[in-house]
């Protein structure tokens, strides 16, 4: 009798252990920008794969990098922009992508499949792309504010003193100021950067806040009337208040491509890696990609999703800019050692 009990006990342990080792991934940790996915997609993914996506939010590429460099190891998939992919590749922080595990990779538009910051998508897939311009409220304007001067010229900024928000993002704020001054948004020239810093300092008293996650809500409550912001965020606010609109200023603006990348850390664990590949591929299924695009209102690099993307998104010039506008857009680009100058001057802006 005792023997039989022992046998059953051993059997139970063996079955239990096998079940555990075969159970596959249960969670995926995603580190991304705020409101950058239709939350319904988490539910659909879980229904299909049994994997729960746990989302954590960062506000800028620099915050993302700092968090990982400080030793955060739990993140499986991260969403850095173009220049940050370059930096992270240089630092060997991203897993190499095995394209054969990504059935839907062929859905991507060839314009995006060999980016200079990640040749032949060696480490990342493009997620969304967009521009950084000005959000405004038509109640205040007869003609759209088509210049960065409305924010950076101290006399004009006076008109909305205390009602302006800038992104809490070093490269974006310098990028806009540099473009307004006629310089490259990726300059490494200290004198040009000092000029840009002084420009921001001169209007700092008119700025209510440096904010990247909830600035569109501040527009909805009218706490701000002008916002440096990312196209899609402002269009999402527009869905709630039709007076809110977005413009790419005449001096030009920053354009960016955000990317889905698997961390080196996740690649060391088979379960985590499996989950990451499933996630990347799920987001590129045409129906899921279209659903996501119709929620975030950014431009999708997924060509196969287009038939299901809302016509109003596909034909919206501030989302898919025309050729003339396109010529005024610039990537931030990497700045190498000059990052130190940016950081120092950014601290001066924030603390002065
Ligand atoms: C989404 C933010 C877009 C990120 N809320 C811009 N790189």
What does this protein structure show overall?
42% of the residues lie in helices and 16% in strands. The protein is an alpha/beta fold. 43% of the residues are buried. The protein binds pentane-1,5-diamine (N2P). Pentane-1,5-diamine (N2P) binds at residues 33-36, 81, 230, 233, 256, 258. Pentane-1,5-diamine (N2P) binds next to strand 9.
Compact description:
Strands 1, 2, 3, 4, 5, 6, 7, 8, 9 and 10 form a 10-stranded mixed β-sheet that branches. The chain has helices at residues 2-22, 40-49, 61-69, 82-90, 149-152, 154-157, 170-181, 190-203, 215-220, 231-238, 264-267, 270-283, 286-296, 311-314, 323-326, 339-351, and strands spanning 27-32, 52-57, 77-78, 124-137, 164-166, 207-210, 226-230, 244-247, 253-262, 329-330.
Small-molecule binders here are: pentane-1,5-diamine
For the sheet with most strands, the description reads: 10 strands, mixed
Q: How far is it from the N-terminal to the C-terminal residue, by CA?
A: 81 Å
How many helices does DSSP assign?
A: 16
**Into which percent range does the helicity of residues fall?**
40-55%
Rg, Å, rounded: 23 Å
Which sequence of SSEs, written as H and E, runs from N to C?
Answer: HEHEHEHEHHEHHEHEHEEHHHHHEH
Classify the beta-strand content into a percent band.
Answer: 15-25%
Which of globular, elongated, flat, extended, rod-shaped describes the shape?
globular
Kindly state the number of beta strands: 10
How much is the average pLDDT? Answer: 94
Broad structural category: alpha/beta
Uncertain runs with pLDDT below 50, 5 residues or more? 11-21
């Amino acid at each position: 009798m005792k023997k039989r009990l022992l046998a059953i006990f051993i059997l139970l342990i063996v079955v239990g252990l096998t079940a555990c080792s075969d159970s596959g991934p249960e969670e995926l940790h995603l580190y991304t920008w705020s409101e950058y996915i239709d939350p319904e997609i988490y539910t659909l993914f879980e229904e299909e794969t049994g994997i729960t996506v746990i989302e954590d939010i960062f506000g800028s590429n620099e915050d993302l990098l700092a968090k990982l460099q400080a030793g955060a190891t739990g993140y499986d998939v991260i969403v850095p922009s173009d220049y940050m992919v370059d930096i992270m590749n240089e630092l060997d922080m991203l897993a190499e992508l095995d394209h054969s595990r990504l059935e839907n990779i062929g859905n991507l538009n060839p314009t995006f499949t060999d980016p200079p910051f990640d040749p032949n998508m060696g480490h990342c897939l493009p997620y969304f792309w967009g521009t950084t311009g000005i959000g405004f409220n038509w109640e205040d304007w007869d003609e759209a504010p088509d210049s960065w001067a409305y924010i950076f010229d101290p006399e004009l900024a006076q008109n909305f003193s205390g009602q302006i928000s800038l992104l809490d993002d070093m490269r974006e704020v310098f990028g806009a100021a540099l473009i307004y001054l006629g310089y490259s948004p990726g300059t490494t020239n200290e004198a040009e950067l000092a000029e840009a810093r002084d420009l921001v300092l001169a209007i700092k008293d008119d700025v209510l806040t440096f904010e990247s996650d909830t600035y569109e809500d501040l527009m909805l409550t009218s706490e701000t009337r002008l916002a440096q912001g990312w196209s899609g965020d402002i269009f999402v606010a527009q869905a709630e208040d039709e007076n809110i609109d977005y413009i790419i200023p005449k001096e030009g603006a920053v354009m960016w491509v955000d990317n889905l990348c698997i961390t080196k850390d996740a690649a060391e664990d088979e379960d985590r890696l499996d989950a990451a590949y499933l996630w990347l591929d799920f987001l590129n299924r045409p129906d899921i990609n279209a659903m996501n695009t119709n929620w975030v209102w950014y431009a999708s690099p997924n060509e196969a999703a287009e038939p299901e993307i809302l016509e109003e998104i596909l034909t919206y010039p501030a989302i898919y800019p025309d050729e003339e506008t396109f010529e005024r857009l610039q990537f931030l680009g990497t700045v190498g050692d000059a990052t130190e100058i940016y950081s120092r001057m950014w601290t001066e802006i924030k603390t002065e």
